[in-house]
Design a protein that fits this description.
Elements lengths: L5 E6 L6 E9 L4 H10 L8 E11 L1 H16 L4 E4 L3 H10 L6 E3 L2 H8 L2
Parallel strand pairs: 2-3, 3-4, 4-5
Antiparallel strand pairs: 1-2
Helix pairs in contact: 1-2
């Protein structure tokens, strides 16, 4: 970890899933940015959420905990949630801890968006 920057960009969608793009390093220093963005997402609206992680360069246990919390919130409100664009390293971590069995993982944002569109 050299540069503790994280950008989180939300794009609401009127008829499809919301898109949250996360780029940079996700750790206990930058995690509040993701938490704040997730708090703004209207889970339960039926639209669903795609979290684009293709720009994520680092993710520690804090980041994984935030993603699991988003999953739990989506489950509690019957909202679909997909993670897209995981790097091979992050995908390996998800597989090791069994999160590939919990999350819907898509290779790209396009795949995730099309799978959640009504």
């Amino acid at each position: 970890m050299t540069d503790r920057t994280l950008t989180v960009t939300a794009r609401p969608h009127p008829v499809g899933p919301h898109l949250l793009t996360v780029a940079g390093e996700l750790d206990h220093h930058t995690g509040p940015r993701l938490r704040a963005a997730l708090d703004e997402i209207p889970f339960g609206s039926g639209a669903g959420l795609v979290i684009d992680l293709s720009g994520l360069t680092y993710c520690d246990s804090t980041g994984i905990t935030l993603l699991v919390s988003a999953y739990q919130r989506a489950q509690n409100t019957n909202s679909p949630l997909s993670l897209a664009g995981l790097s091979p390293d992050l995908l390996r971590v998800f597989r090791i801890v069994g999160l590939d069995q919990v999350f819907t993982l898509e290779p790209s944002v396009e795949h995730a968006m099309s799978s959640l569109r009504p």
